[in-house]
Inverse folding.
């Protein structure tokens, strides 16, 4: 244990309003900690710079899943275990339910929150690709009120996001209009459990008479933050899906992707595997007779 | 309870290692220390707290090689609160006494690897200690490091001795050079293995206490208390009776706590002596990963001559290991690698030229298998490559060349004990339904994105120390009986999960004729137990077990001669006789010293003769699936058939095989040490990947039993054998699945991908 | 700056406890150092090995990742609370008989993960057992006899006979 627990202050105002007032009163001074599955690792490694922490754990105002018919609202303090257990999420946002099973282990899932996953902003974040292809929105809150932005606008750079210093993530909203879409999500990690993503691909698509009428693609670890693959989508949108179109889409993805070499994997591997995953998804979109 | 006495010959010590029927040996008695472990009551080193205890920490080198120009202490710390130790404080010799004495306890003016200990600090507050470690500023004059076998071989930078060679061997049988002329086939190959980390879940840790009267006492998570004892004598310049080493409950070891604890114990002892306080030194995971020993990386080259029927004519083998900065155990690892490199095959002409090369990596050390996994990876991969080149089924190739009774090995050792490789192979093929599965995969693979294959490995593992090693160890072990009516096993051998406590208690109870519950293990404390040798080399059940078996029989013999114990006796009779003997002698103790089996001859210079008194044998089969979308190989199922003498405890024995296989799977496909400028860059569990419960395949284990005369109650060594086969079996299976042979481990998906891309572009280039 | 320790209370194995500790002290360290409950182990400090697993409010958590302030008012179960006055819990008994513990250092965490699994899913499939224990690393056993132990515990706690081993499927 390399961190010094006496050198950090952790307080728990006990209410969302209390936390927001604290953040408003001293913008930038307080770092919020929910389940702690990221921050506590840094703490143990002696790498936690933040001296003042405010606990979001136990705030019921942040932990909810509400189905309003045309969307699901998920409180930022919702754990991945909560997500896995919710029938509405399984039905309306199955890719998110699937991603929830990838988080760490059972013990991590009971503490890691969706808000923490997004605000931590790792390019490998497990829940991000699914949220991007569902065109989710995030709702931010401060003493001044709430505002919503497209999740695709939330990350602005490597581990940088659009939140102001006095803001907290309040909720994630997922529109419930993908019931007819073909959906795909696959993660490639170092092993089957407790693996940080080397690359992951999510996709939602609608086909009409062999033509791609809607397509959304998003990846983890192909960019400094989880991102949509707009160029690859453009190469597919409105096209009749064929082997040639799939080949071109793969090539476009390999151009669009900007992976790096790091301790877990290589750029070349990530790029190629992402293209293979895309191929896998697109082949599922072909009518059965046309599949190889 | 009436105990049947198996001996009808009271004056003779009868061996128990024939097909004697046993009551306790061979049954699944409860693990001796199991209840405490399950209740969470077992006390591991870090669970121990002492009043007034201080903590110790280490300031380590951040470069792989260089001169120490200065050591500075930042003024923001009040250093008067700390005890500070450097090499200058060492009362005795600044070396760890292992095989050689080239490894210093602490760097003195120069560092030869990253993480080398330079300064030790002690303080009662763990947090202040942490800050202080960061406040010691070492300035270096860096020197050019050597960081690979190839760099060391070039010998343009000498980092050890005169030529960078820590050890070399030359083993020769017949005339290899003359054999090429007769060869119908000549096949070459180069095989590489990477470093592997033990990843025991309990990190290294010790507690040291010093006082003038009794000297130094060290408690620790360790495998070999007498190794630590011997090392401390030299470092602290103390007489034997003033050094005491006690093993605490140990949470995994696998060889990683064979030699390293001598260094850690020396550090804690120095701090305890200088500070006058009890000092606890434990490593957190990051430090343990970065600073302690790992498995030797290797490069093995084979050049093999065969006749027209696929029979081996000659094997010319070069074995190279990377030993790191100091010799530690490199010579014995190299020895075992040398002796295992020709595989379980008959070959009239063999040459093995082996070298352990010094580099400026963190020194490598013992790890389950100890050179055999490296050597067996090479030869068993090579056999499949040979089979592919000559167009023969790899199973048939092995059958044609297997050792049988009466054959000689590469060291001219005659196989006098049964060799049942054919039987093991048949069983492995049958249990795995090998041929049917391969037929199915041949049908399914062409249209599947996931390609499946099967691969095998056949191998032996020499039990116990090589050659005259056991004679040199001269182990002493035995049994005593306490006034409270407990029979105690007196050994310095340690339990670290493999079952030492249980099997030795079984053997003691069996050989005496009392109940398993009457036996307990004496504390592994150098003040209490004799030196029965280290807990390594798969020697505990075979060699130490034999000593306990003899000691039990000897005790019964003495009780009959001198304390009126009858031919058949109950356990009450037994303890009563012990009481009578205690009145005479003041104690009831029965010790036995190692006796080498007759007719064992070993030439250490020529590397010829009986390399090992006994061998364990195994054939393993791996089924692998390669996902062509992600280039990921996964083991789907695994079978292991082995002959290890008598199976002392079916649950423990099975557990040893399964655990060894899981580590072997990690060695092959998951566990990569990433080096950056001589330092382990992935020194966190999140980045050093071992298989989880979702990754290990179903493992099927089968024993064939041939009790061994030399072993305790007929047992041979078992602990290391299972780690020898998985890597080659798995890579052979991958070759079967996708038709590409990989010769280097760990084989990560990125490596598989890179090689396949290279082969594709080569194919394109030649097609153009 | 030095953080003033707070008074934090929670229940451990049914007993009310209170400690004075800085909010960012790890629950693991509070259990081991302040409460001297050393059954829960530290293997990595990163939430990877699971040897620090305890149950908190009916969920499995890695106690090395929980700041003790967040355990305020919680109900915590550790391995020390698993055994009963009259002997071993069926899960412990199963591990003893089936060889689920070798060196024993992962065992407390493994037992808590098993307790958690069987509390939410009394009849897990082998796949569910694997998933339930995937966060607990064991370096000794290769997991096989741990799976067997869990299956045996299920039988014992169920009182019904089961055919087939833990490896079907």
């Amino acid at each position: 244990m390399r961190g010094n627990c006496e050198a950090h202050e952790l307080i728990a105002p006990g209410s969302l309003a209390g936390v927001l007032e604290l953040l408003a009163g001293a913008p930038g001074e307080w770092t919020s900690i929910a389940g702690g599955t990221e921050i506590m690792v840094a703490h143990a490694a002696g790498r936690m710079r933040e001296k003042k922490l405010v606990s979001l754990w136990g705030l019921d105002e942040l932990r909810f899943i509400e189905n309003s018919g045309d969307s699901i609202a998920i409180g930022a303090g919702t754990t991945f275990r909560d997500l896995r257990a919710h029938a509405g999420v399984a039905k309306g946002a199955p890719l998110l339910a699937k991603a929830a099973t990838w988080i760490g282990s059972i013990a991590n899932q009971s503490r890691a929150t969706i808000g923490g996953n997004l605000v931590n902003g790792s390019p490998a974040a497990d829940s991000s690709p699914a949220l991007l292809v569902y065109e989710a929105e995030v709702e931010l809150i401060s003493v001044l009120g709430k505002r919503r932005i497209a999740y695709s606008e939330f990350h602005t750079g490597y581990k940088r996001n659009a939140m102001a210093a006095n803001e907290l993530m309040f909720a994630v909203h997922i529109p419930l209009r993908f019931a007819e879409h073909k959906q795909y999500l696959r993660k490639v990690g170092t092993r089957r459990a407790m693996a940080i993503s080397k690359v992951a691909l999510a996709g939602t698509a609608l086909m009409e008479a062999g033509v791609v009428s809607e397509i959304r693609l998003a990846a983890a670890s192909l960019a400094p933050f989880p991102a949509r693959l707009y160029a690859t989508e453009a190469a597919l949108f409105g096209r009749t899906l064929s082997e040639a179109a799939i080949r071109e889409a793969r090539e476009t993805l390999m151009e669009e992707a900007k992976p790096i070499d790091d301790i877990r994997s290589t750029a070349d591997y990530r790029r190629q595997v992402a293209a293979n995953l895309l191929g896998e998804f697109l082949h599922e979109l072909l009518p059965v007779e046309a599949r190889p | 309870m009436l105990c049947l006495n198996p001996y009808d010959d009271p004056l003779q010590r009868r061996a128990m290692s024939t097909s004697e029927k046993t009551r306790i040996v061979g049954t699944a008695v409860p693990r001796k220390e199991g209840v405490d472990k399950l209740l969470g009551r077992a006390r591991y080193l870090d669970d121990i707290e002492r009043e007034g205890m201080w903590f110790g920490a280490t300031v380590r080198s951040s470069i792989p090689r260089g001169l120490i120009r200065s050591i500075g202490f930042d003024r923001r710390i009040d250093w008067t609160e700390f005890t500070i130790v450097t090499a200058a404080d060492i009362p005795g010799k600044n070396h760890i006494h292992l095989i050689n004495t080239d490894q210093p306890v602490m760097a003195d003016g120069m560092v030869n690897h990253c993480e080398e200990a330079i300064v030790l600090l002690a303080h009662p507050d763990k947090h202040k200690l942490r800050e202080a470690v960061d406040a010691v500023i070492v300035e270096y004059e860096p020197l050019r490091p050597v960081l690979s076998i190839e760099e060391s071989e070039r010998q343009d930078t000498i980092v050890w001795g005169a030529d960078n060679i820590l050890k070399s061997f030359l083993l020769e049988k017949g005339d290899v050079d003359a054999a090429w002329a007769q060869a119908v086939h000549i096949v070459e190959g180069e095989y590489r293995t990477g470093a592997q980390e033990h990843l025991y879940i309990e990190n290294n840790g010790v507690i040291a206490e010093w006082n003038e009267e009794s000297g130094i006492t060290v408690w620790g998570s360790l495998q070999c208390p007498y190794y630590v004892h011997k090392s401390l004598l030299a470092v602290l310049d103390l007489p034997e009776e003033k050094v005491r080493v006690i093993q605490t409950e140990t949470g995994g070891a696998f060889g990683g706590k064979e030699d390293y604890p001598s260094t850690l114990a020396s550090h804690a002892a120095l701090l305890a002596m200088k500070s006058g306080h009890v000092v606890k030194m434990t490593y957190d995971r990051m430090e343990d990963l970065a600073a302690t020993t790992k498995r030797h990386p290797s490069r093995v080259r084979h050049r093999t001559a065969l006749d027209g029927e696929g029979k081996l004519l000659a094997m010319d083998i070069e074995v190279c290991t990377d030993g790191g900065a100091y010799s530690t155990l490199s010579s014995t690892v190299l020895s075992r690698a040398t002796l295992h490199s020709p595989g379980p095959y008959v070959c009239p002409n063999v040459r093995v030229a082996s070298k352990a090369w010094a580099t400026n990596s963190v020194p490598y050390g013992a790890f389950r298998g100890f050179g055999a996994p490296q050597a067996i990876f090479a030869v068993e991969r090579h056999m499949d490559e040979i089979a592919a080149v000559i167009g023969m089924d790899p199973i048939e190739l092995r059958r044609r060349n297997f050792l049988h009774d009466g054959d000689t090995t590469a060291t001219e050792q005659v196989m006098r004990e049964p060799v049942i490789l054919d039987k093991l192979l048949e069983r492995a093929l049958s249990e795995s339904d090998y041929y049917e599965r391969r037929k199915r995969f041949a049908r399914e693979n062409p249209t599947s994105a996931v390609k499946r294959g099967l691969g095998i490995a056949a191998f032996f593992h020499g039990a116990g120390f090589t050659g005259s090693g056991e004679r040199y160890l001269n182990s002493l072990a035995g049994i005593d009986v306490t006034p409270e009516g407990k029979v105690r096993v007196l050994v310095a051998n340690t339990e670290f999960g493999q079952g030492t406590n249980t099997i030795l208690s079984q053997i003691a109870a069996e050989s005496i004729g009392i109940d398993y519950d009457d036996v307990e293990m004496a504390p592994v404390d150098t003040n209490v137990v004799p030196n029965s040798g280290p807990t390594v080399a798969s020697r505990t059940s075979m060699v130490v077990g034999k000593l306990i078996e003899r000691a039990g029989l000897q005790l019964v013999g003495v009780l009959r001669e001198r304390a009126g114990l009858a031919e058949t006796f109950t356990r009450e009779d037994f303890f009563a006789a012990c009481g009578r003997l205690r009145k005479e002698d003041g104690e009831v103790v029965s010790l036995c010293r190692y006796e080498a089996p007759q007719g064992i001859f070993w030439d250490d210079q020529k590397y010829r003769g009986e390399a090992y008194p006994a061998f364990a044998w195994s054939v393993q089969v791996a089924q692998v699936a390669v996902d062509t979308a992600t280039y990921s190989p996964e083991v789907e199922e695994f079978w292991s058939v082995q002959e290890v003498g008598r199976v002392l405890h079916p649950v423990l024995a099975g557990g040893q095989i399964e655990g060894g296989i899981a580590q072997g799977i990690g060695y092959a496909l998951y566990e990569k040490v990433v080096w950056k400028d001589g330092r382990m860059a992935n020194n966190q569990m999140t980045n050093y990947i071992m298989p989880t419960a979702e990754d290990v395949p179903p493992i099927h284990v089968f024993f064939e039993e041939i009790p061994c005369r030399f072993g305790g109650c007929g047992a041979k060594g078992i602990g290391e054998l299972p780690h020898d086969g998985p890597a080659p079996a798995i890579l052979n299976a991958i070759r079967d699945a996708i038709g590409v042979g990989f010769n280097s481990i760990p084989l990560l998906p990125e490596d598989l991908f890179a090689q396949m891309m290279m082969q594709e572009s080569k194919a394109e280039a030649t097609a153009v | 700056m030095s953080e003033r320790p707070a008074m934090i209370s929670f229940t451990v194995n049914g007993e009310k406890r209170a400690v004075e500790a800085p909010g960012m002290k790890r629950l693991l360290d509070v259990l081991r150092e302040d409460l001297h409950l050393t059954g829960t182990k530290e293997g990595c400090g990163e939430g990877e090995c699971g040897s620090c697993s305890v149950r908190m409010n009916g969920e499995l958590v890695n106690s090395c990742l929980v700041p003790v302030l967040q355990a305020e008012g919680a109900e915590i179960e550790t391995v020390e609370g698993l055994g009963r006055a009259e002997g071993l819990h069926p899960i412990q008994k199963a591990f003893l008989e089936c060889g689920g513990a070798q060196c024993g250092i992962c065992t407390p965490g493994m037992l808590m993960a098993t307790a958690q699994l069987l509390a939410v899913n009394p009849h897990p499939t082998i796949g569910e057992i694997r998933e339930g224990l995937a966060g607990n690393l064991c370096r000794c056993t290769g997991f096989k006899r741990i799976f067997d132990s869990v299956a045996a515990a299920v039988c014992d706690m169920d009182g019904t006979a089961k055919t087939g081993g833990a490896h079907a499927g």
Q: What stands out?
A: Chain A has a mean pLDDT of 96. The interface with chain B takes residues 1-2, 4-7, 41, 44-46, 188, 190-196, 263-266, 268-269, 272-273, 276-277, 279-280 of chain A (CB under 8 Å).
